[in-house]
Design goal:
Keywords: Membrane, Transmembrane, Transmembrane helix
Order of helices and strands: HHHHH
Helix content: over 70%
Number of helices: 5
Number of strands: 0
Radius of gyration: 16 Å
Length: 142
């Protein structure tokens, strides 16, 4: 149960980071009401969560669907073209993957010699994931 809740919290934070990344480059759609924006963000969170839950073994398909969800939802949220949204979604996912990879490598060399992020080292693995997402968050602001 803790794993699902922790995953949901991380995905909410990741969706917020994605939104902030788009905010850096795009002007927000002023015609949308606040409830519509919240609904779009909730749909992005649901897409991220369902992709992570059901496609955890199929990395390429999962990443493709995550990028596709971000492209479609953020193009409505910011009222930008699909082409721009594809570029921003790929840039954000690339940044996220690079930071996750660096965090995984640091976990592999510093914390656990076996490289098991969640199995034998649940607390350390969770801290590495949190560190990774905070690093993405800081990369967006600086």
């Amino acid at each position: 149960m803790f794993t699902y809740f922790f995953s949901l919290v991380i995905i909410i934070f990741e969706a917020i980071c994605c939104n902030l990344f788009y905010h850096v480059f795009c002007k927000e759609n002023s015609r949308l009401r606040k409830s519509q924006k919240v609904l779009l963000m909730l749909s992005l969170i649901c897409c991220y969560y369902l992709c992570g839950l059901f496609l955890s073994d199929m990395l390429i398909l999962k990443m493709t669907l995550v990028v596709l969800a971000a492209v479609i939802i953020m193009s409505f949220y910011f009222e930008i073209s699909i082409k721009k949204s594809v570029i921003f979604a790929l840039l954000y996912q690339g940044l996220s993957i690079i930071v996750d990879y660096i965090a995984y490598i640091s976990n592999n060399t510093i914390i656990s010699k076996a490289g098991e992020v969640q199995k034998g080292y649940a607390l350390e693995g969770s801290l590495v994931v949190i560190f990774s997402k905070i690093t993405v968050f800081l990369c967006i602001f600086f």
